C-alpha cells in the first residue's frame, strides 16, 4: 500500500537511479555498433574547482539530445573529459603553493562528482584529461607530422604579449586590445615563435562554411569576417629622392585620386630603417609597441609620425603624398602599407583631421556632391559616380575599379591580389603548465625534432614559481639534453603549446581514448566522426571552432582522419543572468546575503540594512551574482534545475535565474509526482490490451496524448526545448482535469497519457521519470525503453474552423467536419447570431464557400 502523504524525495531518488545506471553501464557504447550512430558533445570544461550554473545549462542541453536520440534507437556517443592545461592552474599553484597537477586532479574529482549528481548520460569509460602524458603524447606526434607536412614553421615575429600572464597571445585571443583572460592591455614584442599555417587553408575554411547549414548564422558570419577574404590591388608608389618603391595593398583602388597620404606599420622594414637614424621615431615605435596591438588601435585615437618622405601617385606624376608611420596600419595584413583616402574611410578621415591633411571627395551617389564633414562617405556602392578623379570622372565605381586595376597592371606598377585577414596561428606560450613542444635546439644542427621513440616529452615536477615568466627557462636540468642528430649538448624548446592546441582535436580522441599508437583508430573515427551535434558558448565562435576546423583538415592531410569538418551541427547556448546587489557602501553582494521582504523591498539578510538592486546581468564572480549549482541540486534536486534550464527560453537566448522560477518548477515536479503516484481513477495493469471501445472523453485524451508526442518530436528536433516542456505540461493539465468516472477505456487512456508524459520527460528529468515509470508497474528501466510512437489516425484533425464574413468583414466562426457538404456549411454560417442580426431578413446575393477555409456572404 502506497503512503499517499509522502512527498517526493529528490535527493534519495536521484542517488538511487544514478547508482543503477552506473552499475548497469547504461550509457556505455561500443565502437562499430550496428545501429545508426549519433555523436553529441558539449565543449569540455576547464577543471577550475566547481561547476557553475553555466555548466548546468550546457550539459543539460546536451543530455536532453543524447537521451532523446538514444530512445529513438541511435547508438549515442556522449563522452566527457577535461581541458586541463592552461595558465589558471599555474596561477593557482602560485597562490596556493600547490603543484598544478595536484590542483587539477583535486578539481576534477570534485567536478566529476558534481556532474554525476546531475544525472548526465556520459560514457565515463571514455573520460580523457589533456594534461596526462597519455593524451599529449599524441599531439606531440601530430606536431611532428605537421612539421613534416610543411604545416609548421618557426620565425621571429612581432607577437601579442600579455604583461600580466607573461605569455604570447594569438590574434584571436586579443579582445579590444586586451588579453582574453587577464584583461590587460597587450604589448608588441619581437620573439621567435612556432606557427601553424592556418592561412594555407583560408579559402577552404571559408568555402566550407557554405556546407555548415546546421550552424547558427551569426557564428558563420563571425568566422567569415575573421577569415576576411578581400579582393584588391597591390601597387607601387615611387619614393621621391630614393631609388626605391613603396608597395601598398588596397581593396578600393578606385579612390586613388582621393589619396592624401600613405602610411606604413610601425614594424614595417622601412620604419625600422628610418628609426636607426631618428631617435624621435625610435621612441614613437617603442611607445606604440608598448600600447598594444595595431588592430586594437582602430577603435582608439590614431597616432602617426611624419617620416618626411614623399611618394608619387602612379596615376598622377604631379600628385605627391607624405609618408607617415601609423599605429593603425597592420604589418601582417596586405603589405603593411596603405594609401589613405579620408573622404571615404572614417579611420583615414580621423587621421587626416588630426594631422591637417587634405580631404578630397571622389565618389558621390548622385550628381550633387556631398560635403564631407565629420563622417566619411565609405558605404558607397558600385553604381555610385566618380568625381574629381581625372580620367575616371563620370564612371561608375565598378567600372572605375576595374579600369584602375587594368591600368596599373599594364604599367607594371600593380597586380590583382586576394588577401585574407586571417593570420597564421602562433602556438608558442611562455609558461610551464602546457604541453612541451617536442623540439631540440642544437648549436651545430639547428632546430631538431624529438624522435618519436622519445615521446612524450613530459614536464618536470620539481618546479618553482618564485619568479615571473616561464619556470622551464630557469629549471636547472630539464631543458638540458643531447642532440639526437650529432650527440652534442643541446637545449629543449622551453615554450609550451597554446592550450587551444589540446581542444582542437579532443573530439576525435573520444572515439578511441585508450588507443596508444596514433591517438585514434580509423575504424573508430570513420564510425563516429564527424560530431553530429556540438554544444557550447558563442564566445568560442572564432577561437576554438576555427582552430578545430583547421586542425581537422591538417589531420586529414597527415592521414589521421577522413573528414574535413569536425562538427555537423552547432548549438550555442545563451548566458544565465541574475539580479545584482550592492550594499549602501557600494560593495557587491551575493544573492544568499540578501532577502526580499513581504513588501518587495530587498534588504541585507543579517543586518536588515537597505540593498541597492541592480539590473540582471551575466553571472560573474566579480559582481557576486552567482548561484551555486550544488546548493540548488541539494535543495530542489537535479531534475528541477534541469527543467528550469529548459523551460524559460530557447537555448540560444539568455535566461534570468529567479527564486520564483525555480520554486515554480519544484511545485510542478511534486504535482506530477502526485498525479502518477495517486491517479484520479484506477489504472489497468501495465501492458494491458487496448480496449475495443473508448468513450468520448477517453478518445479526446488519446488524441491529446498523441498530438503531444508529435509536437514534442518536432520541438526536440528543432531544439525548441521550452516549447516541448510547455506541450508536455499542457498534457498533464488535461489529464489532471479528467473526470473521476471510469467509463469505457478512460483508465486505459489515463495510463497511456501518464506513461507518455513520463517517457517524454525522460530526457529532461531522467530521475523522476525513471521513478514514476517504476511506480507505474514497469520492470524494464525507462532508460532502456524506446521513444513513444504516434498513432497517426489520432493526430489527424477531423474538424476545421471556418471564418464567416459578410462582404469581407469577419462576423464569426463555425466548427464543422472537414470536407463537409457545402449545403451544411451554408446553413451553419447563416445561423450565426451576428450574421442573423446583420442580415435582418435580407437575402444574400450569393454565398461563397472556400472549402475548409472561409465562408463569405455577399450582399
Which features would summarize this protein structure in a list?
859 residues; alpha+beta; 25 helices; 39 strands; globular
Share of helix among residues? 25-40%
> What gyration radius follows from the Cα positions, in whole Å?
34 Å
The average pLDDT value, as a whole number, equals: 91
Which class do the helix and strand fractions yield? alpha+beta
Uncertain segments are 1-5
Quickly count the helices. Answer: 25
Overall 3D shape:
globular
Distance between the termini: 70 Å
Oligomer: single chain
The proportion of residues in beta strands is 15-25%
Query: How many strands?
Result: 39
Biggest sheet features:
7 strands, mixed
Q: Could you explain how this protein is built, in words?
A:
By secondary structure, the chain is of the alpha+beta class. It is built from 25 helices and 39 strands. The strands form twelve sheets. Strands 10, 11, 12, 13, 14, 15 and 18 form a seven-stranded mixed sheet that branches. A four-stranded parallel sheet has the order 2-1-26-27, with helices on one face. Strands 6-5-9-19 form a four-stranded antiparallel sheet. Helix 2 (53-71) packs across helix 18 and helix 20 packs parallel to helix 22. Residues 1-5 have low confidence and may be disordered.
